[in-house]
Write a structure and sequence with these properties.
The chain is an alpha+beta fold. The chain contains one helix and two strands; from the N terminus they run E-E-H. A two-stranded antiparallel sheet has the order 1-2.
């Protein structure tokens, strides 16, 4: 297993390994990519929400 891509967010780091794609048909790869995008979107949403709530507390 080798890390082929790393995404850094404020409160999370996501590593994509090459075995995510190995021996998988194209349809399965597309499903996996969509799941990764959904997770990344959730991380971004939670981070933005946290920042908004912290800003409201300061005001």
């Amino acid at each position: 297993m080798a890390i082929v891509r790393t995404y850094h967010f404020d409160h999370a780091t996501v590593h994509i390994a090459d075995d995510c794609y190995r021996a998988a048909p194209p349809e399965e790869i597309q499903k996996r990519v969509q799941r990764m995008l959904d997770i990344a979107g959730g991380v971004l949403y939670k981070n933005e929400l946290r920042e908004k709530l912290e800003a409201e507390k300061r005001d």
